[in-house]
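Annotated sample (chain length 478).
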Amino acid sequence: MNAKPLVVDLDGTLVKTDLLFESANRYISEYPLLVIRLLLWLLTGKAELKAKLASVCEIDPASLPYNKPLIDWLRQEKARGRHLVLATASHQKPAAAIAGHLGLFDEVLATRDGINLKAGKKRDLLVERYGSGGYDYIGNGVVDLPVWKSADHAYLVSDSPRLEARVKQDVDLVRVFSSQKRPFPVSLLRAIRPHQWVKNLLLFVPLFAAHRYQEVGVLLSTFLAFLVFGLIASSVYLLNDLVDVEDDRSHPRKKHRPFACGDLSLLQGWVAWPLLLGLAATIASLLLPTKFSMVLAAYFLVTLGYSLRLKQSVIVDAITLAVLYTLRLIAGAAVIDASLSFWLLTFSMFLFLSLAFMKRFNELRMARERGREGKLSGRGYIQDDLEVVSSMGTGSGYLAVLVLALYIQDQHTAELYTTPEFIWLACPLLLYWISRVWLIAHRGHMHDDPVVFAIKDRPSWLVGLLFILVFSLARVGV
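Output written by the structure step:
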């Protein structure tokens, strides 16, 4: 048995995240209008900032993304009688809570009383307690070099060969543990979800509804608008995942998202989403019509409201999601300076309201299967709402079919289509698709996002192609 204490760093080592960013992220999510306080606290020093955040934001130790192979090894060392010390620059309060949760550590040394226990200050405290070379140390970055140099043996948590070589130059590196993180480019790509951009194909609907798809300039403008909406959507996905990170960690599938599982730093997210937003706004203001920029701004503001508050409100959250889909149609019309029909807007609201309720139905069903009581995490729904959510969702879907049927009788429809009667064939197609996806949802086989399910579902593709065929026949006639 090694008699020397084993000192373990916390942020980026024991957990795949940083508690300062975790606390700041939670504070911003709960008090977005008071974010200026963070800057004021920071001006008084990092130690004071950490103390203030620890007093207003409580971190749930059980929800954090831990480095499990490292913890398994620490348990083995503990079983051999090793004295384990948690030494971190994070504040004493959350550090003690984590130590209590894991039940591994004999001591906890952390930031307190105005002293930020990092780098040189951590080294000085450890040398004072155990003497130079009187302890072994596990860290994860260059900032830990002063601590390693005063330790007997060094352990590293990192996947960087460059950092490993740098540490070996100065200290006796005994073992390297993986950080258990995916590469940054892969994680960022997963976080911005480019596959979700397919939803922005709705921008092309007004173009085809107005039968202007042969105008090259209009087509290119719509493609550019599609790109801009994609950047905005990715910006929103990042922001939403940051706000939802704690709720996502309790979800069976969402817990694997990059921020929730620790593959991406929360700080990286707070840098990335404004950059994507700024890029989208710049392209829109320089190259696209002002009307489109106004709709784009409305889309972002509604999404911001949804991420921060509206998603917690029963019914309002589903209506907001339907509005966001419909805003894509409005944006597509703004790009080509076309008017949108009452029928198309109404059809969109009812159809996407149905899919929004399906998302909530899936969440409620999974919570029931896992035996969870009370409200959904981060939502306003309770278990007893499952059946009524299903009823509202199927009802909304069938109302979309009714709107489509009424559209056939509109005078403007007769002007656009040679044989509008053919559109009747689209009604049973839509009835089949809505009934099928809701049946799949009830059987527990629906994806978290019904739109993503439709993208991967062959019958949905077939229904979509037949839908296009029906409207093409109505256009050209027989």
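Annotation: The domain at 184-476 is CATH 1.10.600 (Farnesyl Diphosphate Synthase).
Annotation: Residues 154 and 291 are 60 Å apart (CA to CA).
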